[in-house]
Design a protein that fits this description.
Blueprint: H1 2-6, H2 11-28, H3 37-50, H4 55-73, H5 97-106, H6 110-122, H7 126-131, E1 137-138, E2 143-146, E3 155-158, H8 161-174, H9 191-204, H10 213-226, H11 231-238, H12 243-246, H13 248-253, H14 255-258
Antiparallel strand pairs: 1-2, 2-3
Length: about 270
């Protein structure tokens, strides 16, 4: 995927697209330029109906494969019609503050606790978490520098005092070299490993919801809104291009709806 590097795609996009192409090659067990469009349609049917991929991942598969054919084989294939026609209108999964604390408490060690705390306290995407380097934590200014986030954009988010305290304890014990949270071989931690440790901690905390890194991000935004933070500030903190994306949280926290008393309680 050197072509994508030259074209300045973000690291996360390059890794995601590379993974999608490798998965497709493994499925067909032959080079993709030997695949006709009918076989590609069968692959999409498999991913949607057997693998049950999400709306956004289905769209990402189509975009990645279309780009791969164009850049590698100089072949323009029509995959736009395989984009899902309508995004499901679902509200984000949000957990309470006390549930976040329970999950952190039930994490196995200070490294896992710190990772969960960083994601929640700064509202990070999992790709942003694992890309963090030690130098991105600025304790003098109390900020975290997110580099090459979604859309290949940098941003600054506040660093929590409690999170900094946990990070200092973690650093003394694990002494990472470059990345803030390293894998076993000193490289970047994997996003799948983080979600597994997060789900294991949530299970031990007896929280019966499908908890992922994005659940923590959703909860961060929702809790900020509940505290009275302006929606446009939340937009900047989350790195959203459009305010429309951030507005979904107003449906979760609408005070007039949350304060309605059920007639059953009367």
């Amino acid at each position: 995927m050197k072509i994508l590097e030259v074209k300045r795609y973000s690291k996360n996009t390059i890794e995601s697209y590379s993974s999608i192409v490798k998965m497709a090659i493994q499925f067909f067990e032959k080079p993709l330029n030997k695949i006709d469009e009918t076989e590609l349609h069968r692959y999409f049917y498999h991913m949607v109906h057997t693998k049950k991929v999400s709306y956004s991942y289905q769209k990402q598969i189509a975009m990645a494969l279309k780009l791969y054919y164009r850049e590698v084989f100089d072949q323009n294939i029509n995959l736009e019609f395989l984009f899902p026609s309508r995004k499901p209108d679902r509200l984000p999964v949000v957990i309470a503050r006390k549930e976040v604390l329970k999950i952190i408490e039930k994490a196995n060690n200070i490294k896992h606790k710190s990772m969960i705390a960083v994601v929640y306290s700064a509202g990070l995407r999992v790709g942003e978490l694992i890309a963090l380097e030690i130098k991105d934590i600025d304790s003098s200014r109390m900020v975290i520098h997110i580099k090459s986030g979604k859309g290949n954009k940098d941003r600054i988010v506040p660093l929590s005092e409690k999170t900094l305290s946990m990070l200092r304890e973690y650093y003394k014990e694990y002494t990472p070299k470059r990345y803030l949270f390293e894998g076993q071989k000193g490289d970047r931690y994997s996003s799948s490993s983080f979600n597994k440790l997060l789900q294991a901690a949530a299970k031990r905390a007896r929280i019966n919801k499908n908890i992922t890194a994005h659940t923590l991000r959703h909860s961060y935004a929702t809790h900020l809104l509940e505290n009275g933070t302006d929606i446009r500030i939340i937009q900047k903190l989350l790195g959203h291009n459009s305010i429309k994306t951030t507005m979904i949280y107003t449906q979760v926290t609408e005070p007039t709806l949350l304060n309605v008393t059920s007639p059953f309680d009367d």
